[in-house]
């Protein structure tokens, strides 16, 4: 699959950030986007050439690991990173519409099988009928991710989708509750480079509602042999990376421009602080 022209799938946070930075920073972000489109397309070609479902899961693991490393580094280095409020059990964002690419859905299905996590197919079917715009029509129970535990924990945390990995807030977590506080203002802390990496993956590999993508994988026969089970035990910390993944051009420059533009724009984006965007 060839990278398409333009940012076809990109998050509101990335869209907002691109409007605030310099033309030079925008060009560098586009260079990164083109680079990662090529990287993820190369991973997909190897997967298709191998005609092996295990390679699809390796693609997802590689991309997720790369995104997580970027997010962790940015949170650690950015002064606002210490203000991130997301904690175990804080799960309001686990009741929102989430898109994934096919390889992520395949990985989630296998992890659920390996960890013996039951998947509520009836709830998935109800979720699959909704879009981003109609998601609020679901009840609080039906809007919950099928991998959300009874105590608000993510049962597939080490293998969670890229959309979940990069979403962090610095405002009151209760504002994320779309049922109790509909239309509440949420202040999102985001890592621009991770946003570009993820948007490139979603554009290149194809974005789809997680509910619909998971339902598609459930129609396929389940296969998990002893060797795969051992592989999962070894990689349970989320450290599996497929070969050929490299960091894109302009990575350091992107951080430099982000810091410069953050200081220039502080207080001019609806009260947003550096590294943050209003949701």
Descriptive report:
The chain has 279 residues and is mainly alpha-helical. The protein is 49% helix and 4% strand. The protein is built from eleven helices and five strands, in the order H-H-H-E-H-H-H-H-E-E-H-E-H-H-H-E. The chain has a three-stranded antiparallel sheet with strand order 2-3-5, with helices on one face. The chain is globular. Mean pLDDT is 78; it is low at 1-6, 224-247 and 249-274.
Which SSEs are present, and which pair or pack?
Blueprint: H1 12-20, H2 23-50, H3 53-77, E1 99-100, H4 102-114, H5 121-128, H6 140-143, H7 162-165, E2 168-169, E3 187-189, H8 192-205, E4 208-209, H9 210-218, H10 226-234, H11 251-265, E5 276-278
Antiparallel strand pairs: 1-4, 2-3, 3-5
Helix pairs in contact: 2-3, 2-8, 2-11, 3-4, 3-8, 4-9, 5-9
Order of helices and strands: HHHEHHHHEEHEHHHE
What fraction, in percent, of the residue positions are helical? 40-55%
Task: Compute the CA-based radius of gyration.
Answer: 19 Å
Beta-strand percentage range: under 5%
Round the mean pLDDT to the nearest integer and report it: 78
* Overall outline: globular
